[in-house]
Write a structure and sequence with these properties.
Helix 1 packs across helix 5. Strands 3-2-1-4-5-6 form a six-stranded parallel β-sheet, sandwiched between helices. The chain is elongated. By secondary structure, the chain is of the alpha/beta class.
Length: about 220
């Protein structure tokens, strides 16, 4: 998949490593030429100096052929404008934006744009949103060793047992939201496409949850 990244700060540069490792092609945009010094040695993607919301720059970055756009500049305004351009003008299905002001999260959600907060694991969060349908919620217990995740259930998991995403002592599906109505799942509950599963999981078990989601594909 071709991925366009807006912003080559810490998170943007980290994302290039994760995306390249999984075989994706990358174009990254930043208004500051020296920002690309953050990229890892041997980076084989495309770098472009320009504004992330400028359509000409996005076109040069291959936005028309992209499967995803990620907005991770250091400003909410640039992120939301460029994310809207990708979503509404270029019809990019997978669009994620980093937010600094959590009060703006609702605006993004109404526009169908997924968000991640400014946390130290933002790069991992963004990859989860793009490729696993996992959103890291605000709730963290203790020092963050246990977290609440929001997982969107796609067609590939329709009919699967809710319990297939749970493991004793490691993860628990605490609720399933179906068409806006949350329920606590029983032992025989199954997923339907469009469900949203709310899962409590130990942070060091998130990789195991990713693997379970991949097995369902």
């Amino acid at each position: 998949m071709h991925v366009v990244i807006g912003g080559c700060g810490r998170v943007g540069s980290q994302l290039t490593v994760n995306l390249a490792r999984h075989g994706h092609t990358i174009s990254i945009i930043d208004k500051k030429p020296d920002a690309f010094e953050r990229l890892p040695p041997g980076f084989e993607g495309q770098t472009l100096v320009g504004m992330v919301f400028d359509r000409e720059t996005l076109e040069q970055a291959g936005i028309r052929d992209a499967g995803a756009y990620i907005a991770v500049t250091n400003g909410d305004n640039s992120n939301i404008v460029s994310a809207r351009v990708a979503k509404e003008h270029y019809n990019i299905e997978r669009v994620v934006a980093r937010i600094y002001d959590p009060r703006r999260a609702e605006i993004y959600q109404r526009l169908g744009i997924k968000t991640v907060a400014t946390v130290r694991w933002a790069s991992a969060e963004i990859y989860d949103v793009l490729f696993h349908g996992i959103e890291h919620a605000e709730l963290a217990i203790g020092s963050g060793d246990i977290v609440l995740l929001r997982v969107e259930i796609g067609a590939h998991m329709a009919g699967a047992m809710v319990s297939s995403l749970a493991e004793a002592g490691k993860s628990l599906v605490v609720a399933v939201d179906r068409m806006g109505t949350p329920t606590i799942p029983g032992p025989d509950a199954c997923f339907q496409e469009g469900d949203v599963a709310h899962i409590i999981v130990a942070r060091d078990e998130i990789d195991s949850l990713r693997a379970k989601l991949d097995e369902q594909h």
